[in-house]
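User: Structure tokens for both sequences below?

Assistant:
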Amino acid sequence: MQTLHRHAESMSSIPRGSTDFVTFVYGTVFAARTRVVDRLHVGERIILVPDPPGVDEPTVWAHSPGGDVIGHLSPDVSSWLVPAMLAGRRCGAEVHAVEGPAVERWKRLRIRVRCHE
């Protein structure tokens, strides 16, 4: 029973192939990324960049409009979004919510991702 529970926790609530969804940005605590997050505002555009082909566990990276790395999308979302983007799906995002220091760091930034062919 414990194994099933752990598996359910690791599954994404975002269905594979979704083209409009809200998700957290992870890795915002490394380097000076927290300062970049603190500069963001709701509605601001976010640039999404997939890792290039050949990376063992490819990730979709989130960048500020000026190009600063903010963080990355979760491995479960990246597992299907990277191949879609490399196959030609265009995806962008905007800041959906920025939370303060009272919120866990991995939940501080939520973005809305929108994709189209």
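Moving on to the next sequence.
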Amino acid sequence: MWCALLTGGLSSGAVFTSPPSPMLAQLDARLPRGERWAYEPKLDGFRGLLWRRDGATQLLSRSGRDLGPWFPELITAAESLPCNTVVDGEIVMADERGQADFGALQQRLSLARKFIGQAVASKPAILLVFDVLELDGEELTTFPLSDRRRALEQLLAHGHRCLQVVSQSLDVHVAEAWLGVPGLEGVVAKRVDRPYVAGRGRDWVKVKRQRTIECVVVGVTGDLSAPRLVLGLRHDDGRLHHFAVSRPISAEDGGPLATLLAEAGPTEAAIKSRWQHDAVPPWRRVEAKIVCEVRVTNLDLGRWARFPVAFVRWRPDRSPDDCALDQLSV
């Protein structure tokens, strides 16, 4: 057993008496390089710490919320782990194309518990495990990632199908190629010689997969000194549908901004998301004739930007007819 190899013997009892706090990655624009770095693909899911101890098993979110009632398949999978074991990973679900489906995760959390069993049967979740904090009562957080990774691979070599070890590479060129793979949220670079330390630091660095697409400006919202653009994409029905709101832009971005503000119509009510949050706060409609290029990261159901998008540039050379939803499938 790995605990014995690492420490020379097994301890008795659990290491953690309260839910452990996760180690977090620092967001950066580019991947670090060097022989001390390993790289892992980051799928779009929920952080999940699976904690099996004597008499209880919990699936904890990043904030410490118990997600077990909504993902009982992962609680069942934990039975394949030794008691007093904590593994860290990402809860993911796949769509029909085999890509991570964040919307399905959100929908699972909205279900009444009496419908959870049916949901599990039709679309089970998987915990993509990338670390082990405790193994059979032995604390591993003080050991370097390279040792923890070997212990994890041995632990899950013949484990439950809902517990899978995330891929890892020491080749930065492989990691950079991952950043171009549709369906991935990005790549996390990790120092192989460092321990697991709760909180955010520079030992884990996350780079998000980003792409630019062209959208039609359909409205403006927010402070008019630094407004946000309401953006649309053309769907297969030939109509423009709401896609995103930009981050605030300024007069320095020039172009048709002043004209858009001058021609904007009266204030309209907020547009609700499917989760009943304000996807677009109260806004003012403009004629759908101006196109801009924006930088996009995470998507919801492949048709909405989950976060405000970053303005890149105006595209006077593009027509609203060029701004189709299929840009998101690339």
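User: Anything stand out in the second?

Assistant: The longest helix spans residues 145-155.
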